[in-house]
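Backbones bend. We report:
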Amino acid sequence: MNESFLHFLWQFQRFDKVNLQTTDNESISVLKVGKLNSDSGADFQDARLLIGDVEWAGSVEIHLKSSDWDIHQHQFDTAYQSVILHVVWEDDKPILRRDGTKIPTVTLRERADENLLEKYHTLMEYKATVPCQNQFGEVDDIKKIAMLDKVLMKRLQDKSLVVNHLLTENNSDWEETAYQILAKNFGFKLNADPFLSLAQNLPLKILQKHRDNLFQIEALIFGVAGFLESNHKEEDFDEYRKNLQKEFHFLASKYQLHHRVLGEHQWKYLRLRPANFPTIRLAQFARFIHENINLFSVLIHIENVKSLGKILKITQSEYWLNHYTFKKKAEGKVPSLGSSSVENILINTVIPLLVAYANQKDNQAYLDKAIGLLEELPAENNHITKHWQSMGLNIKSAFDSQAGIEWYNHFCLKKKCLECTVGVAILQK
């Protein structure tokens, strides 16, 4: 038994309510179950109950054992002083409010449906990563669509928290925050951390002072990234790299950047195709900054996927059209940023910025734009989306694939079936 199952029993009133009484033999009529609370405080807020001849309004708290109230020290927390009913699986101790009055308690152990409990245990013990996959096709599509909507909003809000964290660190500077989020996503998964460190060590305000000079922007970016240090052999420095190094030393002294230089060892190449090498991504990032210096304004006003594609259709400087790394020439022309990279940047940079900005400004239009962009983007193709499709879930756009990823990772793998509309539907059948 766990509290999640007790939440389910109370929320959907799936227990025997005939002659429902407290442990002190007072009759109980549930007038309003209350709203499930995911924040601090009692589990269900705004409940209404008739206990004996008195109508009560307040909160309902749920525990496996009544003694858990004291173990969790709710007796000292003012957020629990409005509790009007304690719902437990087992009553092992009378519980008192701060003023000494007893909190009415009801036990569900003898009232729960054994068949329902067995169905729940079957779900929990099923070895597949999606516990309900054998019953998934029996659930109405409307339940699945509702879950996709729910998990997508959770995913968007979770991603916006990363933006909010950086925004706080940047003293509410949206331009600097957009620059750091973009940098992190130019590193994609493998080099996201060093890219973010680079952006935090090299403020956008410095790059903006050199907006008209791509070479100086490259010198600053490659310099702070650690690629221009003097710990290489002389033959490792061709003319271009020597010039970058010279320019960076001048600019680093001007802006006091020498102590902010990363180690070249922080950048990873393992299992990367040459077009994804960090040196290429840094060169492309430098070009994007050069051409779009007011980053936040550019990104927040993206109208559609096509317009972002045009903005991100950037060609790195001439040197990096012929090199994947310093000095070593490429056999063919080095490609520019591909369409899949553009889509990745939109999903992980533009969308979180729009959601965070919508929340801060309390403006639904930006959230609607974020959702519209996801609906316009093609669905991602990975093992998670393939698994959903094999179960009959229609994955048509990035809206669906992003929702499917969240659903799979944070509900199915963690077996949070009681927080899932599909899981609840299966248990209620």
Residues 3-112 form one domain. Residues 190 and 288 are 20 Å apart (CA to CA).
